[in-house]
Specification:
By secondary structure, this protein is α+β, with helices and mostly antiparallel strands. It has one domain. The chain contains 1 helix and 8 strands; from the N terminus they run αββββββββ. A hairpin with a 6-residue loop joins strand 2 and strand 3.
């Protein structure tokens, strides 16, 4: 009888640990305030959307969203739009990284940005 109870306890503990290990961290910069839900409501691995937009629309400027690898230096521009865009990201619970919906490459951090008329990017 004690063996059965101990086995059940170990099994439920193992399941809890496995599900916690499959969670992604919050992917957005602390300056991002346009995510589909706030960080305190983020539970584990649900899809998240972010709205990136220019507050002052000017010719040759653009809004964009970038994905950063594990360091904060190298990034990929994932989407660009003249004034605003909405992008959805999916958590890969195995790698604990994020990819653009229908995308493949994974990122640890997602930032909105603005492309200046000279082509340089500034990210928040």
């Amino acid at each position: 009888m004690y063996v059965a109870i101990l086995t059940l306890f170990l099994l439920s503990t193992t399941i809890t640990v496995v599900s916690a290990e499959g969670c992604c961290q919050w992917p957005f910069s602390p300056y991002t305030n346009s995510a589909s839900k706030p960080p305190m409501d983020f539970e584990c691995s649900e899809p998240l959307s972010v709205l990136c937009q220019l507050y002052v629309v000017e010719p040759d400027k653009a809004a964009g969203v970038a994905g950063y690898q594990l360091n904060d230096e190298n990034y990929d521009i994932l989407q660009v739009a003249p004034s605003r865009l909405n992008a959805t990201f999916i958590c890969n619970t195995e790698s604990k990284l994020w990819h653009l919906e229908n995308g493949v490459k994974e990122y640890a951090l997602i930032k909105c940005g603005e492309r200046a008329a000279d082509g340089t990017w500034t990210f928040l």
